[in-house]
Amino acid sequence: MFGRTQRWCVVGFMLGALLGCAPTMQSAPSSAAMNDASSAATAAQQAQRNSQTVERRLAPPASAPASTLGTQWGEGRESAVRYVPAERVTQQPQELRQIGYTDLASIQQALGRRANQQLNILLAGGKVEWSVLGEQEQALPIYSTRGAQDYRVAGKQGERYELQFVNRSQTRYEVVATVDGLDVLSGRPGSQTAGGYILEPGQTMRIDGFRKSASEVAAFRFASKPQAYAANTPAGDVRNVGAMGVALFELKPTAPPPQAPAGPQAFPADAGSTPFAPPPAYR
């Protein structure tokens, strides 16, 4: 369980059950209680009517068009990581977000003049910024209906992209990311219970492909849906093609490094020693 046991996460360089209630016997309500219940019901009906009026005034989000693109298992790229133990604060993610992607014409047809445009999505109240970078490392515009969170990115076939996360806080986070419904670390169906990448305080981290090993990834490249990795692996489901997802978890602080003893030392030359050459100390 998160928050109780340690889990292994990656550091990069750069229940679904319904709970039923048993019926209980109640005595008949008194007259005063019935009047209170009647007043409460009237107030609830009025609040519902007010809510419906507000909902009618707001423009509903545009229906998401079926994606014309998928993400291909691209060329191998060097990307070194190491595994470290980490512990989540709670079982529930602090943030769950999804970005759909397709071609620009489909997005413009779906959103029309209602399109809002931004360069990143704020997670955890703005503590973490999520953006999608294009081939030239520029942030791709993220479109949505004004006032809604139906985020979409326009891609081009053959274009390589990366997921970038910037931690603006002093909190340590775990980022569990999926592309086309597949976990970017394991290639298995995405799950919030999977391990993710660790995002250190103040760090900028890029996820640039499906991980093949501790030293290499297969680059993310926009492609036709039949070329998508999810359409060509047993763990994939073509119904999930066209979606990027992230679950953000807060991690417990790491223990501080052991301090050297303050008193006399029997072997002072061994304190903090390493098998590597020390850096120069210029005068």
Give me a quick take on this structure.
The protein contains two helices and 17 strands. The protein is mainly beta.
Characterize the structure shown.
- This protein starts with 6 loop residues before the first strand and ends in a 33-residue tail after the last strand.
- It is mainly β.
- The radius of gyration is 25 Å and the shape is globular.
- The protein has helices at 31-57, 104-111, and strands spanning 7-12, 69-78, 81-86, 95-102, 115-118, 121-123, 128-133, 142-145, 152-154, 160-167, 173-179, 182-183, 197-199, 204-207, 209-211, 216-224, 243-250.
- Strands 4, 5, 8, 9, 11, 12, 13 and 17 form an 8-stranded mixed sheet that branches.
- It is built from 2 helices and 17 strands.
- 12% of the residues lie in helices and 33% in strands.
The share of residues in helices is: 10-25%
Largest sheet properties: 8 strands, mixed
Mean pLDDT rating: 79
Structural class given helices, strands, pairing?
mainly beta
User: Got a strand count?
Assistant: 17
Tell the overall outline.
Answer: globular
Instruction: List the secondary-structure elements in sequence, H or E.
Output: EHEEEHEEEEEEEEEEEEE
| Spatial gap, N to C terminus | 53 Å
Ranges where pLDDT stays below 50 over 5 or more residues in a row are: 1-5, 13-38, 50-61, 279-283
Q: Please indicate the percent range of residues in DSSP E strands (runs of 2 or more).
A: 25-35%
Number of helices: 2
Radius of gyration: 25 Å
